[in-house]
Amino acid sequence: MIAALMALTANLACNNTTRHNANASDSLTKDSANVRGKDNTAIPLDSGTSASTSALDTAGKIFINKAASGGMLEVELGNLSAQNGASPRVKQFGQMMVKEHAEVNSNLKNIADQFKVALPDSMLPEHAHHKMELSKTRGKAFDKAYMKMMVEDHREDIAEFEKAAKSNSAMIKNFALQTLPLLQKHLDSANAIIKGKL
Q1: Range of the structural domain that residue 192 is part of
Q2: Residue from 179, 186, 167 nearest 60 by CA
Q3: pTM of the model
Q4: What is the C-alpha separation between 23 and 113, in angstroms, rounded?
Q5: CA neighbours within 13 Å on the CB side: how many for 167?
Q6: Disulfide check for 164: which of 7, 55, 73, 176 has CB 3.0–4.6 Å away?
């Protein structure tokens, strides 16, 4: 792995929709050309220029690959929580990660396809290491380690997505703006579970 979009994101989507209304039938006819929010509202990913003909800078490619790897980690750890976790709250959190990060991953794949960027088939070494370490734990020990990792990972993710929200690419910018409220919700949920004294 959705929370409602921030007012800024809603305004951006509204402005982009208005701007593209005249040529929507030509440039935004495919679902793959849009990022979809929680309410299934299409958010235009670029303004005027086809992504396939626009070069994505190095920072954009690094962001896409790191976000894809991080998304895979969130889904795999969410699935692991069902097997290794003890607390029902932790397991519910894991289910939320699987569902909501799978949706984010799908949106990211649409963007990568537009830019003709191949997403990684496996996680980055740092993410694979996180999974390996957590897979060794069970019960309450897993719950504590997993939720601690979720707080740390989501703090890092938020920082990365805030940088991406300033990207020169409208697609990357809109994707980051759309996803930030979701990441903040996950961070808040993880903190609340930890404060509940696992």
Answers
A1: 57-117+124-198
A2: 167
A3: 0.71
A4: 21
A5: 26
A6: 176
